[in-house]
Amino acid sequence: MPLRILLVEDNADLRREVGEYLARRLHDVTPVGSSAEVRDLLSGDAEVEEIDLVLCDVNLQDGNGIELFAELGPRRPACPWLLMSGDPDPQRLVDARRRNPTLPPCSIIAKPVSLRSLAALIANMSDP
Fold first, then answer.
1. Of 8, 48, 61, 84, which has the fewest CB atoms closer than 10 Å, so is most exposed?
2. 48, 79 in Cβ contact below 8 A?
3. pTM to 2 decimals?
4. What tens digit of pLDDT does each residue of 32-63 get?
């Protein structure tokens, strides 16, 4: 089933590669390159309703994906997040969830990840 995916990745080449791959799998991808862009995009409730999944890098040049998840996740508690990191620290995610147990579903994966594996993870997260 096609999803509306917000892709947050500050590396332009990787953002383009992942976005194009997911679009070829019929997903509607909104690519952004910074936490500031995410905040601007998700500042209104209407935009939040149009996103089925957030795929976000953890280490952004202007912020942290786990902090974004903790800040913006509660706006749509049913919208899962998939965080990507070259140095995943699952404890940071556990700590965020401990501070706010109402956060939406979230997983963290290690980069690099194959595009095929990423697509499979997205499909598994979006299954009811």
1. 61
2. yes
3. 0.91
4. 999 999 988 877 655 545 899 999 999 999 99
